[in-house]
Design a protein that fits this description.
The protein has 363 residues and is mainly alpha-helical. 79% of the residues lie in helices and 0% in strands. It contains 12 helices and no strands. The protein is globular.
Length: 363
């Protein structure tokens, strides 16, 4: 067993109790994942629709309407990702910074990939005529770059949880080019997030269709069916990927979700049950299915946090870190968080209103 070397914690201590920071970490991560799922799934579906649009007026129009929403979705994904990333750095900085240094160059490439994908989405939205035959390849490049960003985040996340590898990796090379391909959970963890994105994006298409129900009922009806197909197929596939991920976990961690710990078991299988409920509801009500999926994502975010706690175990227990409360700063953060979420909600509502066409009167 290699020596486990853990960097010392920040001597300034935590700015608030660990339990409070962990709640905020999970809460803000849920918000980020909801936006991220719409972005990842929506970008791929847009690229597919552009490709099929030559022979399908429905797909051409869907791609056009998605192109208007995706740059906004990407900005939401990035903005909502700041808070959970900061909370991870505060709570698990010893692991996060170590993993980031070990994979420094691939990790820094995330910035370039995000910028290029962002520019691609804007070009598809505002310059499709200028791009001409290149509009579909540009959409695919944006989709692939976004998928690659997700893979690099998964490398970082799994390397965060592997303190036994850190010293050995650094001893082998200090080049900052390490990735975590040897990790058994890497691919199933990555697919667990990516496949979920197609299910959530399918629901997003169904909700988008509701904006056009009066102005373009034929298109809206087909969009509901199309979105539902993406949701159903991706959700069924997600059950298989989820089982792969579960059984790729270390024995002790896996058994905690298979009866070894009552709370962990309830959290996991309640999330699975809600996903089944969403499958049963999707043909009747996209809103109710969206509610069930949102609860599923929330429970799975908690399960993900529990996996992190179990992986790090005695090597990095945040509950033992010194606390130096900065309540003034925390109150400012809390107030700005509430205001920010309110502003984001208002902006999404206004965007939906602006994107909802009014029915043209006859005559």
């Amino acid at each position: 067993m290699p020596d486990v070397v853990i960097p010392p914690p920040d001597p300034a201590g935590l700015p608030a109790p660990a339990w409070l920071l962990q709640i905020l970490l999970v809460f803000t991560f849920i918000l980020h994942v909801l936006a991220m799922n719409l972005l990842v799934g929506g970008t791929v579906i847009m690229a597919v629709s552009l490709w099929r649009g030559k022979n399908s007026p429905f797909c051409a129009e869907l791609a056009n309407r998605l192109s208007k929403a995706l740059p906004v979705t990407m900005s939401l994904t990035i903005t909502l990702g700041v808070a959970p990333l900061l909370f991870v750095q505060v709570l698990y900085g010893q692991a996060f910074y170590t993993a980031s240094v070990l994979m420094a160059w691939p990790w820094l490439s995330v910035v370039a990939l995000v910028l290029l994908a962002y520019y691609g989405l804007y070009l598809v939205q505002f310059r499709p005529d200028w791009l001409g035959k290149w509009v579909t390849p540009i959409a695919w490049v944006s989709a692939v770059f976004i998928l690659l960003v997700g893979l690099l985040f998964t490398h970082n996340a799994t390397l965060n949880l592997a303190p036994a590898k850190w010293a050995q990796m650094y001893a082998q090379s200090a080049s900052g080019l390490h990735l975590n391909w040897s990790e058994p959970t890497l691919i199933p963890r990555y697919l667990h997030f990516m496949v979920a994105a197609f299910a959530v994006a399918g629901l997003g298409i169904m909700l988008l269709a509701s904006l056009y129900r009066k102005a373009d009922p034929t298109w809206a009806e087909e969009a509901v069916k199309y979105g539902a197909r993406w949701f159903v197929i991706a959700t069924i596939l997600q059950f298989a990927v989820g089982l792969w991920f579960l059984f790729s976990l270390p024995q002790k961690v896996m058994m905690s979700f298979l009866g070894g710990n009552a709370l962990d078991t309830i959290l996991l299988w309640a999330g699975v049950a809600l996903a089944v409920v969403a499958l049963l509801l999707v043909q009747r009500s996209a809103l109710l299915a969206t509610g069930a999926v949102t609860l599923t994502i929330a429970l799975m975010a908690i399960v993900r946090h529990r996996i992190r706690q179990m992986y790090l175990g005695e090597h990095l227990n945040v509950n033992t870190l010194p606390v130096n409360p900065q309540w003034g700063m925390f109150v400012i953060f809390a107030v700005l968080l509430v205001i920010g979420l309110g502003v984001v909600g208002w902006m999404v509502w206004k965007f939906a209103r602006a994107g909802s066409p009014q029915q043209t009167p006859a005559g």
